[in-house]
Q: What sequence folds into this?
């Protein structure tokens, strides 16, 4: 090949690099063979404790069982090694899968349309705020003060460039209080950051009275047994189904909306069409919204998204089916309520009542920080300490937390409480 | 080659019976109940109608479709990663923290930057993060700088990311396929926040005036931003940090093979020089003695750009890849550049036009505008390649080349593949125009009607009823 190019030395191909910046190699270890690499990484990762080694009751991103079939599906090289499906004729598999994903999340959320994914729920919120501003142009958004600080921090970064102000709604009994608000959008969550189900009708009325869009943050598993927020304009959420926790990423930002707003949407959208012989086919559509066409005027800068996580989500829903989803959702709800009851029995308070799905706040009768530290020594990762509530702990409970796990944990919590007192 | 099926949608497959659940609020939910056997068949059929890197040659320019070593998949499927919550106590995630800490150090060595954040989830997300850092930096300095300059050959994400961070975008024309220094000097002033540059650029040409460019930007007090999409050309040969770049993002799914996932997830770490370190997103990872800790202390930080610490499973794959290659990353870049120049010369010999002809780095761009007299467009040639079992190159980009084909063979293809591709491209040049315009002929579906799809969008299976 070098002869064909009439060169003697590979460096002749790098002659455009100014001599001042040329280097001869990197200060990295020599190449390692596969077995050595695997062993080294195994050794590093052995310092982690998994859910199976240390039961955890942390909220937000929780452990769920993932059927073996889901792993098999996303392990197909045709899916995971392929590029964004711009060449539709060579990408019908991915395109149809993403079309099905859009269908499933639109069905779950009660919306008409979905995009093919955002990075996570926090960036989905940021993008939703920008989209609402493109539609309403009022320069502000209202959010509950009790959402995850993570989402707040990300939202702030997303909206500042567009000059959108954020108003934080105070809360009472764990639910945000809505006052008259003349802005582009109101953001509400159900289940919310405290785990509470918020289906108050006044939310809808408030948004529509003031001509603000309603952005609704929710949970896909919850929606298999609870009514979807059909009254919302944009629905977002974390698409954790079928996707392992992976220490927090990759995640999958669900993004759905009403039909009238699809041209304002961020991200890739897959549509159904036909090929030249009239056979059903799928293709990316409305690409003139996107950065590779519209550049600086695009609805978003997003290019790589979380497509494979969307396929995992779809595969999970397909394997579980409606029956399976509902069975799991009911188990989540039952296990969480069982845990709350057991905690109450040993002296915890459940401050915001029992209208929750699989996360809830409990107030520890002893110093919560101390409690968590001591529990960790006994091999239990307790729930998340809340800054907002003194000795408040946010618990997350799923189908993975069977009675034996919960009973054992509650036993240890009780034991630890006694040690602290 | 890909298989052809008339694969039904999930909701069109024969359903099993619905269970009755007592006392649930939601009555209507149109999600099918299917036996696992049917689900597996469905997804295997779909996968067989998709072209992957293991299927064949995938020379998408600027996408670096290199081979994805299978160990990366095994690592990312380990329980020690899959079943770890991001909110666990630090003492129970020391392995993950160590991996991230070491990956940051490796990326610093590869790029010549001083510090990295791994939080951005994709390349464009990294650009956005970089622009937020630029904004925060100038706010801290009390300077009002509202413009970001971008060459007309840049990726579309560059202007989109700068705009999202609140900057005005000024686009400058290229000259002979490179940054026009005069044009740059003409627009740079005290309101310039940053100049975003891909080097080698999207034509595969190294910006050899880079040190002069850096000087112009520095003298104006602005920042130089490196779009790392094309880093695969220069690993072990030069470092962005040595060229004068202050901020850079990498695409781990490109350069470090993590792979593309049909569109994502990727990872877009951002590296900065020391003076910008405090502006990086939180948390940072610090090593104290033998322990790794999250550090939330920086007051200047831009805060957060995603929920947790980035796409950790993707980061673990990049770490694996870098360990496997080590010093030989240099050889990867050399081979990628050799393959690219070889294929370019082969295609020139076959009769294709290379605008701004000269040495190329890891990719090159040909123009198919001569074919327009025969009524043939670049897209027709792209579709015809599918009939020969090749994935087409990137088409119609960069925008400064008419009927562009942007070709990046990567280091992992052998000579036989490149020769075969060049041979087929030569053959297509002499094929009948109608044959090309009606291609592809052998794919799971024929040429897809994209215009109809946009007119009355059908976005879910409900729309097909």
A:
């Amino acid at each position: 090949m070098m002869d064909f190019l009439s060169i003697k030395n590979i460096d002749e191909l790098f002659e455009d690099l100014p001599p001042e910046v040329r280097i001869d190699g990197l200060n990295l270890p020599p190449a390692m063979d596969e077995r050595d690499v695997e062993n080294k990484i195994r050794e590093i990762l052995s310092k982690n404790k998994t859910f199976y080694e240390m039961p955890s009751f942390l909220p937000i991103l929780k452990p769920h069982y993932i059927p073996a079939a889901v792993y098999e599906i996303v392990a197909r090289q045709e899916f995971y090694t392929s590029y964004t499906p711009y060449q539709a004729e060579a990408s019908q598999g991915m395109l149809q899968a993403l079309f099905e994903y859009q269908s499933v999340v639109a069905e779950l959320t009660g919306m008409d349309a979905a995009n093919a994914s955002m990075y996570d729920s926090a960036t989905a919120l940021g993008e939703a705020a920008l989209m609402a501003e493109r539609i309403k142009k009022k320069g502000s958004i209202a959010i509950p003060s009790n959402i995850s600080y993570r989402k707040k921090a990300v939202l702030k970064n997303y909206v500042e460039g567009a000059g959108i102000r954020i108003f934080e709604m105070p809360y009472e009994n764990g639910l945000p209080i809505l006052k008259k608000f003349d802005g582009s959008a109101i953001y509400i969550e159900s289940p919310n950051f405290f785990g509470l189900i918020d289906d108050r009708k006044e939310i809808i009325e408030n948004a529509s009275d003031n001509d603000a869009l309603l952005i609704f943050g929710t949970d896909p598993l919850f929606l298999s047994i609870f009514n979807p927020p059909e009254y919302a304009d944009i629905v977002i959420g974390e698409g954790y189904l079928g996707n392992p926790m992976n220490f927090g990423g990759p995640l999958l930002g669900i993004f759905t909306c009403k039909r009238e707003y699809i041209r304002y949407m961020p991200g890739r959208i897959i549509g159904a069409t036909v090929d030249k012989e009239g056979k059903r086919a799928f293709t990316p559509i409305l690409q003139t919204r996107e950065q590779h066409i519209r550049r600086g005027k695009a609805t978003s800068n997003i290019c790589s998204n979380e497509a494979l996580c969307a396929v995992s989500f779809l595969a999970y829903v397909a394997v579980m089916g409606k029956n399976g989803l509902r069975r799991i959702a009911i188990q989540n709800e039952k296990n969480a309520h069982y845990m709350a009851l057991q905690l109450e029995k040993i002296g915890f308070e459940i401050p915001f009542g029992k209208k929750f799905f699989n996360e809830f706040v409990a107030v520890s009768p002893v110093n919560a920080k101390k409690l968590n530290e001591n529990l960790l020594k006994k091999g239990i990762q307790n729930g998340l300490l809340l800054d907002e509530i003194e000795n408040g702990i946010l618990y997350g409970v799923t189908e993975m937390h069977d009675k034996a796990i919960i009973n054992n944990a509650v036993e240890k919590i009780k034991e630890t409480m006694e040690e602290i007192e | 080659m890909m298989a052809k099926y008339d694969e039904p949608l999930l909701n069109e497959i024969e359903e099993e019976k619905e269970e009755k659940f007592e006392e649930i609020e939601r009555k209507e939910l149109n999600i099918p109940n299917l036996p696992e056997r049917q689900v597996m068949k469905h997804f295997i059929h779909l996968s067989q109608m998709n072209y992957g890197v293991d299927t064949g040659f995938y020379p998408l320019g600027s996408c670096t479709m290199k081979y994805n070593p299978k160990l990366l998949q095994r690592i990312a499927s380990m329980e020690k990663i899959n079943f770890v919550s991001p909110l666990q106590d630090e003492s129970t995630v020391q392995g993950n923290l160590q991996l991230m800490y070491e990956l940051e150090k490796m990326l610093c060595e590869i790029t010549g930057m001083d510090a990295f954040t791994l939080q951005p989830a994709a390349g464009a997300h990294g650009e956005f993060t970089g622009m937020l850092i630029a904004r925060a930096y100038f706010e801290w300095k009390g300077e009002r700088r509202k413009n970001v300059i971008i060459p007309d050959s840049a990726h579309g994400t560059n202007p989109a990311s700068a705009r999202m961070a609140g900057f005005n975008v000024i686009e400058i024309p290229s000259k002979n396929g490179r940054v026009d220094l005069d044009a740059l000097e003409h627009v740079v002033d005290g309101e310039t926040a940053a100049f975003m540059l891909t080097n080698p650029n999207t034509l595969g040409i190294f910006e050899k005036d880079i040190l002069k460019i850096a000087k112009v930007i520095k003298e104006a007090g602005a920042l130089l931003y490196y779009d790392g999409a094309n880093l695969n050309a220069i690993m072990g040969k030069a470092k962005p940090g040595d060229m004068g770049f202050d901020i850079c993002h990498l695409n781990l799914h490109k350069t470090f093979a993590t792979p593309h996932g049909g569109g994502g997830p990727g990872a877009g770490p951002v590296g900065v020089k020391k003076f910008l370190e405090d502006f990086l997103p939180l948390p940072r990872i610090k090593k104290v003695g033998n322990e790794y800790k999250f550090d939330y202390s920086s007051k200047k930080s831009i805060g957060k750009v995603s929920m947790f610490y980035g796409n950790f499973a993707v980061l673990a794959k990049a770490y694996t890849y870098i360990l496997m290659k080590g010093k030989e990353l240099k050889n990867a870049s050399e081979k990628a550049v050799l393959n690219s120049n070889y294929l370019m010369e082969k295609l020139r010999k076959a009769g294709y036009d290379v605008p701004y002809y000269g040495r190329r780095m890891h990719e090159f761009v040909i123009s198919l505008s001569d074919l327009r007299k025969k009524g043939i467009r670049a897209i027709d040639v792209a579709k015809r390649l599918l009939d020969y079992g090749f994935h087409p190159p990137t088409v119609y980009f960069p925008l400064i080349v008419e009927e562009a084909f942007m070709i990046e063979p990567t280091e992992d293809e052998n000579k036989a593949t490149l020769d075969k591709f060049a041979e087929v491209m030569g053959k297509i040049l002499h094929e009948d125009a109608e044959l090309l315009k009606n291609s592809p002929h052998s794919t799971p579906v024929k040429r897809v009607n994209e215009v109809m799809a946009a007119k009355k969008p059908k976005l879910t299976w409900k729309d097909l009823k």
Notes: The first helix of chain A runs from residue 34 to 45.
